[in-house]
Amino acid sequence: xxxxxxxxxxxxxxxxxxxxxxxxxxxxxxxxxxxxxxxxxxxxxxxxxxxxxxxxxxxxxxxxxxxxxxxxxxxxxxxxxxxxxxxxxxxxxxxxxxxxxxxxxxxxxxxxxxxxxxxxxxxxxxxxxxxxxxxxxxxxxxxxxxxxxxxxxxxxxxxxxxxxxxxxxxxxxxxxxxxxxxxxxxxxxxxxxxxxxxxxxxxxxxxxxxxxxxxxxxxxxxxxxxxxxxxxxxxxxxxxxxxxxxxxxxxxxxxxxxxxxxxxxxxxxxxxxxxxxxxxxxxxxxxxxxxxxxxxxxxxxxxxxxxxxxxxxxxxxxxxxxxxxxxxxxxxxxxxxxxxxxxxxxxxxxxxxxxxxxxxxxxxxxxxxxxxxxxxxxxxxxxxxxxxxxxxxxxxxxxxxxxxxxxxxxxxxxxxxxxxxxxxxxxxxxxxxxxxxxxxxxxxxxxxxxxxxxxxxxxxxxxxxxxxxxxxxxxxxxxxxxxxxxxxxxxxxxxxxxxxxxxxxxxxxxxxxxxxxxxxxxxxxxxxxxxxxxxxxxxxxxxxxxxxxxxxxxxxxxxxxxxxxx
Length: 566
What we know:
Layout: E1 2-3, H1 14-26, H2 36-44, H3 48-51, H4 53-72, E2 75-76, H5 78-82, E3 86-92, H6 106-119, E4 126-132, E5 136-143, H7 146-154, H8 165-175, E6 182-188, H9 195-199, E7 204-208, E8 216-225, E9 232-241, E10 247-255, E11 260-267, E12 276-285, E13 290-296, E14 307-312, E15 318-323, H10 329-336, E16 340-344, H11 349-354, E17 360-364, E18 380-383, E19 395-397, E20 403-411, E21 427-431, E22 434-436, E23 441-446, E24 451-456, E25 466-469, H12 483-496, E26 503-504, E27 506-507, H13 541-561
Helix pairs in contact: 1-4, 4-13, 6-7
């Protein structure tokens, strides 16, 4: 036997004071009275019990004090502490615990069983609470205080991420490394890929909730503006069945306060290690932009994975200042481009630039009659430069000295501006040489080596990018081909930032995709009795000692305080 509070033993010294009090009462002076002889004969006839009554009362009082002191020391049997368990409860707080295939849901059911485990902790045992989500959280360290353990359980809520169950078990093992009789209880839905391995570990009990069920999720949503019309949005959406039952669900895709499209998905049941997915693509208007959301309708096992969204920026027309002849083929192409607003800058690019924000400047076939001398700041496209009218931009043109060429074009670059443009059969008869002061990159050249299309990262003092198309439009068959308007369109869109950016969806609640798989792993059902030994569920020893003390007090009261007069 041992004691939780051995320092309380000093109360035993009160036995000396108690004995002295009894002895003082037994003493006294004798006085002879007229009836002394009669009293002496009466006292001589007393029974032996009456003679020792006071001494027995003293003995019982000392025994009562000893029992009370022993109760204050809070004794316990050493064997019970040697057999006491040290437990760690791991609660899965991943997104799959939202599944409502059991009432009210898997998480609430797991918490209810975890409370039973806490209620089974006896006075000699200790327990810790861990949560397993994206990270492992120590909600409560090793303690025998049930109130702390209950409070730790009440603070848990499901997350929107996966569960680090394997890491949680490793953490629990480290906490129990130097403690005897270690036990780990894992409360989960067993949907984690490692659930079977964890259940096979020694001293680990997996208490699983849920069973085979259906769960569909929106697993992908991608949108991008169409190349030919940026006000239209190409949308691709994917729905996956993670459950073990076939599902038919309706999906609504639309912009906030805008057009909506409803699709119907029929998906067969998922098989082990093989999910069922279906993808659909469609086009919708998106000039105003906004939040594009894909939402599955109807009741589902996990509602949190039924929605994906993507933020689509507004597609407002981009201003392009054109400087060149009014009969320019380039001007006609710009005017036909969706998402582009053309501003005539022939009368003065500076004045036109003041009317718009962040314009793109397009210069075509400039000469002394249409100079490009200006303080325009912005991206530039130079088509068919003719002479020294470009000196403001630090482009050194050799006037009138065009280079005769009789060759086809050779594409040297995989640049995005050349997407869909096939120039290998285009014949060029004349190019315009330009001496650049800044570093450049030749994207397209003739087979004879002359540059056809050049990219300039920064043009002179302006520090803006530019493209230069060297060939004369009247000396090539490029103008007659579909590649010419497509090339001009690509170049202008690139300079204007009107690109076909791909916008990928973000989960509405950032759910880990693996958590949509709510089908439990095949593990043996565990019928766990959280109480190690039913005998240990009794009251501590001091309770019984207190009961014994009450019995001794009653006995002493009958023996002495309720004495019989003789």
